[in-house]
Amino acid sequence: MTGIVDVAARAGVSVATVSRALRGLPGVADTTRKAIQQIAAELDYVASPSAAGLPTGRTGAVAVVSPVARGWYFTAVCEGAQDVLTANGYDLLRYELSEMETDRHRVFDTQLLRKRVDALLIASLRLTHDEVTALHAMNRPVMVVGPVVPGSPCVRVDDVDVGRLATGHLVRLGHRAIAYVGGNPDDRLGFPVSPARHAGYLQALESAGIEPDPALTVPSKFRANDGVNAFAELCARNVSPTAVFTVSDEVAMGVMHEARRRGLRVPEDLSVVGVDNHDMSWLFGLTTVAQDVREQGRIAAATLIERLRTGIEHETSVTTMPTSLIVRSSTSRPAGARP
User: Fold this and answer.
1) Which pLDDT belongs to residue 73?
2) Per residue in 50-79, pLDDT tens?
3) What is the pTM of this model?
4) Pair (190, 241) in one structural domain
5) Is residue 337 part of a domain?
6) Is the pLDDT reported for residue 337 higher than 70?
7) Burial class of residue 233, CB neighbours in 10 A (0-12, 13-18, 19+)
């Protein structure tokens, strides 16, 4: 079997130079890199992840750490990141933090990631001060999608503005009894978006002179089934919202399903707005605040690749991506409202 030593011998360079050339790392002349790539192809040499890291200290892998692995949002982030990582010769490893506190310690308080990855992408996870300190102590580039983390670059959307945009749309249609579905008081994973979107919801109501009704705010996680349960809870409270703003499109889909199961018409009896522009949102006719989640993943991965190439590990920058309201058939004026 052909090894990296054989490629180095044929090319007349060191093993370290071969490794750097095949990993796309700096410090290798273009002519030398092309010659090494041609020789490697002729010898049918393919570097293994473990062997490739020996001369350079690199593993050829990037970790994506997220509260959960399932769900459209986190899958879309990883899809975008993988587009960039694969093009640059890196593998993507996913680490899910379940609600067990030991899982967070396993990732942040040990040397697990230091040995396995060259960089880390943290997706929509609020970190404690100790966890931030532990990440920086790993001496690996860190990039965050979602919340701002001190000392690390971040790509995000303004979630407070998302809440204002969605709720403001419902207010302009004439709705006054607007419910918010999102935010779980028992959440130990640190999803940061629900409180921010709820803050935007409250700001939009205040701007319109609408007194918020606490009974119209219902906790929910992020799956469609959570939206079903949340709307059932609203009904159990004997409140009658004419519109609902949900923390995500998947939750909105659950709300719409349960409302229709109970005999309500969408949007004639209940208007619904979600967030994300989920791949299936058009199928539900769902009005949504769109964000380009895959592009956020691509930007995060490209930033990490640049950090790896330049050797810069800790540099704070915040990239705020635009959002937009997409109006579909799930929202309309409430019955009796003036145009």
Assistant:
1) 92
2) 444 444 457 789 999 888 777 899 999 999
3) 0.79
4) yes
5) no
6) no
7) middle
| pLDDT tens profile 101-155 | 556 666 665 566 777 888 999 998 878 788 888 877 888 888 999 888 877 889 9
Residues 278 and 181 occupy one common structural domain: yes
Better-predicted residue by pLDDT, 338 or 291: 291
Residues 195 and 169 in one domain: yes
Answer yes or no: do 202 and 214 share one domain: yes
Q: Which domain holds residue 128?
A: 61-157+293-321
pLDDT tens digit sequence for 233-244: 999 999 999 999
User: Is 209 found in the same domain as 284?
Assistant: yes
> Of the candidates 36, 56, 76, which is a domain's last residue?
56
Residue ranges with strand state E in the chain = 61-66, 91-96, 119-123, 142-145, 154-156, 178-181, 217-218, 243-246, 271-276, 287-290, 318-320, 324-326
